[in-house]
Design a protein that fits this description.
13% strand, AB_hydrolase_1, Lipase_euk, Rossmann fold, alpha/beta, lipid degradation, two-stranded antiparallel sheet, nine-stranded mixed sheet, single chain, globular
Length: 399
Amino acid sequence: MWGKYIALIWLSLQANFVFSDKLHYNSSVLEDAKLTTPELIEKYGYKVETHVIQTNDGYRLTIHRIPKHGARPVLLVHGLGDSSAAWVLTGPGCGLAYLLSDRGYDIWLMNIRGNRYSRKHIRYATSDRQFWDFSFHEHGVYDIPAVIDYILPISDHHQVHYIGHSQGTSAVFAMGADRPSYMKKIKLLQALAPVAYFENLRSPIIRLIKPYAEILIKLARIFGIYEFPPNRKAWSRMFYKLCTSTLRNTCKQVLMKVMGLDGPQFNDTLTPLIFSHFFYSASLKALEHYQQLLNSDGFYKFNYSKRSDNIKKYGTKYPPEYNVENINCKVALYYSRNDQLTSHKDVQNLRKKLPNVVHDELLAYPQFNHLDFLIAIDAKKLLYGSMFRVMEKVDKGEL
């Protein structure tokens, strides 16, 4: 069976494999690929601020803000391997952060611990194993609460709008389950491509990798690798050069195989931006936590290899399940049938367990994939318009 999947993927890639050194991009796009998030925002005429927030366990997080002083704050939290750039890459008129700013919101773009902008700790260096001892759980119980507590006094509001994509939803679900008091500080939680349960995930790529993931993670630990990819700067440079020149079509096809095939909504001109800002770095523990969930029938905390470690951490031999019923703030769910990293059936199962879902939307466009939530050509029409309407209703007290 695996031979069939490998053959199909290989043939598909070969059909789109292009060797060419004559591919050209607009000079502005190439320039944007080299800019940081604040530089991107500033280039397009928006004000930008950089804030550094220290968590209770010593990580220093860099937060980027498109300020609207006195306006309702919106906290946007990216997915695995992403950064604050995820919300602005498609530019003014298209990027969600810009559109929300244009609608009068005070925008806060989070960078979780370990990503390219949040790589400092009061005791550990990124070369230390201890620095990378986190998954989405720590993002939820440390990072997000620290940022919310920082934002609210500055904004002079009692609640934030929260928008998370992929791992940004797993983290806030963990926060809601373990620190339910923070649900009172969220006016509306909008979850894009929510990731919690994996019982119905049928992605060929995931099914191909799944049997070997555990051994690969163990091998990485044996060799002292705790960040993936290791040597992130060298990896990023190589990835960018290959995927914007000789292997452009191949990289695009691999991306589509992993995220879900949707050529019509993929803007080829953004290729340099996508492959310079996405897939930057993640902790091995975060990947392992998701690997564990793939092999479970629920949404569980991290399972340590020794039962004694679980007993020390949780008081039980096995990790407890997150109590998602504690997530009692207003929740809006947005998901799709063509998302290869989260199943629409699993999101619907999650929806049954959440106590206060005010909006549940299976996107009508059948090819919408996991990355389309951020970069689809027609994201405003297919998704963001609906999000804005829900936010407006909640702000007016109509939901």
